[in-house]
Amino acid sequence: MTRAISTVHCDADAASSSLTGSALKSVRSVVAAPENEMKRWRRIFEANAKVVIDGEKYLDPDSFVNAIAPKSDSTKIGRAQFAILFRVADSSKRGLVSWDDFTVFETLLKRPDADYWIAFQYFDVDSSGTITFDEFKNVFLANVGPSAIPFDFDCDWVKLYLGRKNGTHVLGYNEFTQLMKGLQGERLRQAFKYLDKDQDGFIRPEEFKQIILEIAGHKLSDAVIERLPTLCTLTPSGRISYSEVVAFQNVIREMDMVERILREATAKSKDGRIDQSDFLNHSAAISRYALFTPMEASIIFHFAGRGSREKRLALLDFAQLLDPQWRAPHDVLEANEVRPKTSLLQGVLKSAYGFVQGGIAGALGATIVYPIDMGKMQNQRSTVVGQMLYKNSIDCAQKIFRNEGLMGFYRGLGPQLIGVAPEKAIKLTVNDLVRGRAMDPETGRIKLGWELIAGGMAGGCQVIFTNPLEIVKIRLQIQGEAAKLEGAVKHGAAHIVRQLGVLGLYKGASACLLRDIPFSAIYFTAYSHLKKDVFHEGYNGKQLSFLETLGAAGIAGMPAAYLTTPADVVKTRLQVEARQGQTHYKGLTDAFVKINKEEGFKALFKGGPARVLRSSPQFGFTLLAYEYLQKYPWQDNKPEVKTALTTPKRDEMSQIRARNALKILLDVHGDFGRRAANFSHPLVKQAPPTASPSKSA
Question: What does the record list as coiled-coil region(s) (predicted)?
């Protein structure tokens, strides 16, 4: 055999022989996993073990928690509560975990039933493999505390598991798992009976909250906990019945299934929303038997809808019920705010950056569509002989190109770009500001009325820049054609500003307000609903693509532009200097009346199609640029529903099972483990260490 296969050492080059090298590679791949696992455990142990005794490292309770607690968790289990597991890992009961103890504990966590196994070992104080009545009672009482709702250990339920006579029947592992599964239900029954002093089948809302906090507080978000007393509003009595308490507990117990039904039902819904009937129908469709009763469905929608049961809800509305760590969007923003010494400077820079965003976005949109701006088309007077310069928008464009060349399409662009930065900055900033103030702090939604108000206020605020900008732009556009026909001298923007004066720059401001307020109200509201209701932004975490964002912004500009054309026509007539023989207008009302009387109602919509062709792409590109510029460097996270079902599993399976073991123990009491530092493990005396431990350098 030595002649056929040469000797190969483990540390030798595997390429020395192709046959033996491939064989050795296969062997190494087979044995690599256990070796890597031990190395990983050793690395974790060495990184956290700080106590050194006789040259050996040990984990104390704090370092043990750092070693085994999940780094990311979607539950409300505190890291300090993982100290419960220390008592299981500390097999010698000396207050320290050695490398051997840690290896045994990590191996234990690999069991598929590690969660129940660890709970069993915690109650099995004397490590006999069984749990007596005294062990169960003492461990239970040591962890719930004296202020907890009393539990009657002499009840029939306990006797069914442990026998009628104390100590007659001991629990094996399998019996213990079933006892723990039913323990929370028995605690709920006893707690309700204890608090129902007059035995009429009802308890007060604050008493219901006390029960839930003790047995399931770690499974609920703070928002739901604060609303627990509102369960009494489901019935006219103003109190809470036992059936409602049990129904609420069933919802909590089946929360994973609740989430799956909600996600699937909202995904199938056309509008991404469901009502109580949709929930029950989908629940019945995916299960063999009914999973939830109508009362349980009512409770789900009561807390998701915050008391309003007559509306369809989106998945985002259920977030506070599904995610124990859920917080209102505004609270999250406040909690994430960092206020160092430079916070004021950062705030100024962020505001300035917002203005720059609006300026860049507005300038880009204005430049792209400026040739389409047919201000001259709206100003031509059909009642003046020789003033019908253009038959339509196409004829207007042809004559501009023939008389003024390509640059004629961009006449007045300079003032437009100078004014568009503050105009768009104010418009976008005011809209975002008002929407943010009017937004529901819990759901992040805004009512339709407030959407219109936010857009209208944005449009009204921008007039301070829009009106001077528009009047200079229009006069620059008009004088180009007039100079060609009449031989007049062209003047620049500075001459027009000096000629008009400060007050003259705001000529036609009333018409400008009449145009910009409804335009912005219609535009921003339509844009928001197109993104949400047509393109389904945020629907199951969806983010709009480049074309979808452009499409939503462009389509929103169409009705906004056309419906406000009459105001734009009047504004243009008021701002243009009337030549000899043209009608003079005294004001907004006078202009409306005279245009309608002399030229007909259709004249009020002159240039309407051109406004649509201009405003639609202009605001499309403006909002597109604004949306993408907003992502950097201060990107606001979109609200999502993140739970244990959707959070990426970055933790080891052993860490997940360690957390699940705690969940089983927390069913005994919500504060199980928080008092761990104040008492030693019941029935067991801690042995002092063999030598004084010292912290390693």
Answer: none
The pLDDT of 340-360, averaged and rounded, is 61
Coil, strand or helix: which one is 32?
Answer: helix
Mean pLDDT of 167-178: 85
Measured CA to CA, the distance from residue 434 to residue 436 in angstroms comes to 5
667 near 183, Cβ under 8 Å?
yes
Please report the pLDDT score of residue 194 as a whole number: 94
Q: Computed over its alpha carbons, how large is the radius of gyration of the chain?
A: 37
CB-CB contact of 522 with 455 (8 Å) = yes
* Percent of the chain clearing pLDDT 70 (strictly above): 72
Residue the block writes with tokens 């009333």 = 510
Contact criterion met (CB below 8 Å) for 584 and 526: no
| Token pair belonging to 361 | 């976005």
Question: Residue 204: which pLDDT band, with cuts at 50, 70 and 90?
Answer: very high
Residues 472 and 488 sit within 8 Å (Cβ to Cβ): no
The label of the residue with tokens 């069993």 reads 120
**Cα(320)–Cα(225) distance, rounded to whole angstroms?**
10
Q: What are 97's strand-pairing partners?
A: 59
pTM value? Answer: 0.62
Mean pLDDT score, 232-240? 87
With b meaning 16 or more CB within 10 Å and e meaning fewer, what string describes 563-575? ebbbbbbbbbbbb
Digit-coded pLDDT (tens) for 139-154: 888 888 778 899 999 8
Dihedral of alpha carbons 525, 526, 531, 535, sign: positive
Q: In what helix (H) or strand (E) does residue 604 lie, and over which residues does it extend? A: none
130 phi and psi angles, rounded to 5 deg: -140, 160
Name the more confident of 697 and 238. Answer: 238
Cis peptide upstream of residue 146 (ω within 30 degrees of 0):
no
Q: Which residue has the tokens 């028995």?
A: 186
Q: Which helix (H) or strand (E) holds 582?
A: none
Specify the pLDDT at position 106. Answer: 87
The pLDDT tens digits of the residues spanning 377-387 come to: 444 545 444 45
User: Do 333 and 635 meet the contact criterion of CB atoms below 8 Å apart?
Assistant: no
Give the tokens for residue 30.
């087979």
In the structure encoding, which two tokens stand for residue 578, read together? 């009337």
Is the dihedral angle over the CA atoms 462, 465, 467, 472 positive or is it negative? negative
The average confidence (pLDDT) of the chain is 76
Contact 418, 476 (CB under 8 A): no
Tokens of 632: 């950097």
Asked if 227 and 303 count as a contact pair (C-beta separation under 8 A), the reply is yes
Contact (CB, 8 A) for 498 and 551: no
Mean pLDDT over 24-34 rounds to 46
Peptide bond into 468 cis (omega under 30): no
